[in-house]
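User: Second chain of the day. Same drill as before.
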Amino acid sequence: MNQDWIATARTLSEALPYLQRYTGAIVVIKFGGNAMGDADEMASFARDIVLMRQVGVNPVIVHGGGPMINQMLGKLGITSEFVRGKRVTDQATVEVVEMVLSGLVNKRIVQAINDEGGRAVGLSGKDAKLIVCEPDDPELGFVGRPVEINTDVLHSLFTAGIIPVVAPIGTGSDGETFNINGDTAAGAIAGGLRADRLLLLTDVAGVKDADGAVITDMRPEQVRELTEAGVIAGGMIPKTETALKAIAEGVRAVVILDGRAPNACLLELFTDHGAGSLIRATEPRIRPRG
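Assistant: Same format as last time:
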């Protein structure tokens, strides 16, 4: 008998406790814009999401799209100003951001999932007032901080067997349009849903210790200690801050993992080893990672 077939059957058998564990679970996945330019990576990601839905998981995709926004701003000749390293989002810029994220990027992901046999629907945080925002910093213009998450529309899609794909655009109390950091939007939606998992796909293997080794299992207090010590630094800080806030709002665990790795989401959910750095405030339901 073909050894590859035997290995595949063994893998499926070993995955059974995890497939049972996640039946009916809500998993929010932040999918970064850098991975969207590669058609093969997009197709592989979409296939994994369809498989997750097929085995009973309720996935929600929240995406970014920074590279595409930069390209469109350049084509339109719109220059950006920066305050403390952050882009100022004026009226012209937020219109481009909404056009790119809610249009081009969102529908590209929806199409990829549908092409793999799934049923996906694209929406933004403005639809059904999914994400209501306040200005994050007046100096940054239309950059929003989520203050209210209305999840009824997502639950309706779950019931219908549909995969929501959410663009990180929010609405203000007076109908303004706000651009939201993708990780922030994903964390807020995960908190509103009290999701079982929030997966933050990035371009590094996870949170690393002082020796450069990936820490596979963490508690919030350890994250704070490493941040104070300067071990967690740079671009990892906002991701761990998102993780801690999501956990405080009821998300059971957050995983920071390398989205470039093949089948990263499936490895995290359905294997004993997992992938990346898992941050949680409670004990595991099955067993600790090896």
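The radius of gyration is 19 Å.

User: Great, on to the next one.
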